[in-house]
């Protein structure tokens, strides 16, 4: 039927670190880029105030990728973070991808690629004697730019 479009569903995804993959992701946020904007105020001869918005010095400001996932032994993201803590930032910078796929399909629906990514924050969830939740990890990842494949292609 023309005009009926199926939405892209964002509930099946994994992180590709190149040599290893993390498929226990629960949430991802920070999939954004932003242009720097400068506002200038001008006054015309008639006394009318005009506010103009123009592009700022940075044509592109990258977001911070935030991942939440279930903790597991031999976590490659923790090893990656440890290389940053041990001041091996040159080795820690990786080109990584977040891959979104649909059930029943072998190919990726969307792929978000991040250049020169490195983890800047690593935190554990709170513990509670009253609960039975799995331990979760939240990681903040810095990067130098995002590229999206499979959207509007």
Summarize the structure.
With 153 residues, the chain is mainly beta. The protein is built from 2 helices and 12 strands, in the order E-E-E-E-E-E-E-E-H-H-E-E-E-E.
Radius of gyration: 21 Å
Overall shape: it is extended
The stretches of 5 or more residues where confidence is low (pLDDT under 50) are none
Helix run count: 2
Number of DSSP-assigned strands: 12
- In CATH, what is the class? Mainly Beta
Order of helices and strands: EEEEEEEEHHEEEE
Walk me through the structure.
The protein is mainly β and 153 residues long. The protein has one domain: Hcp1-like (Pnp Oxidase, Chain A), CATH 2.30.110. 9% of the residues lie in helices and 46% in strands. It is built from two helices and twelve strands. The strands form three sheets. Strands 1, 2, 3, 8, 9, 10, 11 and 12 form an eight-stranded antiparallel β-sheet that branches. A two-stranded antiparallel ribbon has the order 4-7. Strands 5-6 form a two-stranded antiparallel sheet. Strand 1 and strand 2 form a beta hairpin. It is extended, with a radius of gyration of 21 Å. It starts with 12 loop residues before the first strand and ends with a strand. The mean pLDDT is 89.
């Amino acid at each position: 039927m023309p005009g009926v479009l199926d939405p892209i569903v964002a509930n099946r995804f994994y992180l590709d670190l190149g040599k290893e993959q993390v498929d226990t992701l629960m949430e991802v946020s920070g999939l954004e880029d932003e242009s720097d904007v400068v506002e200038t105020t001008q006054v015309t001869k008639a006394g009318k105030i005009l506010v103009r918005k123009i592009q700022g010095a940075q044509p592109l400001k990258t977001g911070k990728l935030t991942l939440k996932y279930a903790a597991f032994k031999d976590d490659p993201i923790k090893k990656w973070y440890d290389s940053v803590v041990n001041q091996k930032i040159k080795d820690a910078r990786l080109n990584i991808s977040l891959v979104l796929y649909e059930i029943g399909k072998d190919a990726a629906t969307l792929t978000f690629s991040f250049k020169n990514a490195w983890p800047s924050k690593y935190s554990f969830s709170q513990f509670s004697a009253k609960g039975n939740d799995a331990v979760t990890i939240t990681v903040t990842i810095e990067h130098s730019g995002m590229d999206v494949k499979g959207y509007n292609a």
